[in-house]
TrEMBL record:
Its main location: cytoplasm. It comes from Brevibacillus panacihumi W25. The gene is thrB. Pathway: Amino-acid biosynthesis; L-threonine biosynthesis; L-threonine from L-aspartate: step 4/5. It is an enzyme of class 2 (transferase). This is Homoserine kinase.
Amino acid sequence: MSSKRVRVTVPSSTANLGPGFDTLGMALQLYSVVEMQVSEQTTIELIGKELQGTPTDKSNLLYVIAAELFQQAGLAVPELHIRASSEAPLTRGLGSSAAAIVGALVAANHLAGEPFTRDQLFAMAVKKEGHPDNVGPSFFGGIIVATMPEKEDQPIPYICLAPPAAMRALVVIPDYALSTEKARNALPQVYSKQDVIYNVGHSSLLVAALAQGRLDLLGQAMGDRLHQPYRAPLVPGLEEILAAATDNGAVGAALSGAGPTILCLTASDSECERLKSFVDQVMRGHGISYQTMVLQPDEHGVQVEVQ
Ligand SMILES: Nc1ncnc2c1ncn2[C@@H]1O[C@H](COP(=O)(O)OP(=O)(O)OP(=O)(O)O)[C@@H](O)[C@H]1O
Ligand SMILES: N[C@@H](CCO)C(=O)O
């Protein structure tokens, strides 16, 4: 067991990108940091306002995930000093739980002497999160197309695409939380054939458009009928932004992950000001306080430093 301190930096992510429910996601330059070191006693130090209210005992997600990794490696679970921070707010649809899971797995794997490969860690994270669309970008960076394997013991099949160079993400982050669980419970159990065909077509077109840098197609390709229509009642302003973002400087728009953050993609930084005033008008109309951030895609994924 290593006695060194491991520092892991993990990008946040935006999942689904509209039609790619549970299968598509993009890493963003908004980071979580997890530092971990074997210690005599477990202490969890959470830095900054975003992690306020998160447990600082052994029920903390970071500790739970690290402990599970040591157990799976056949090692005794050590006491740990964990220090963590997050630039991304939690429960907003920016993949904070996936980033925490990836950060804790990668840090614990280093302390344990690297018993697991990166693909094994990816599979462990996907199992924990239930789907690969946030975990994939946090691990590998860029845009990830991934799905669950046919059999449980198979590796997670994925492809990483480089985001189109000039593309920017304007994220509209409302000041209220929406848990992924609540947003998933809003979805129906059964879909019509027309809606399934609609999403297969749009998701396929979106992946092809992103692969070829065809930002002009995103406005159409990002249409979705599997989750956004059912989540819209939980996210005031979503319908208006999806309907008119492309008339106001965006090349496409979607609910980010399970929401309530709304993602608007632009072809350059210069479109963002016009888009911000449109978004402001919509959100004010609903009396919702919010913040916006203009983010570049992250292309590196998880980064590890051993100190
Ligand atoms: N750094 C962290 N340390 C401990 N727990 C965390 C950390 N980051 C996230 N979590 C846990 O993850 C929960 C948020 O998960 P949830 O899936 O609801 O939202 P999200 O991951 O931010 O959004 P989405 O999955 O829609 O992108 C928090 O309430 C907290 O329990
Ligand atoms: N694909 C997931 C992302 C959030 O975890 C969802 O939309 O529920």
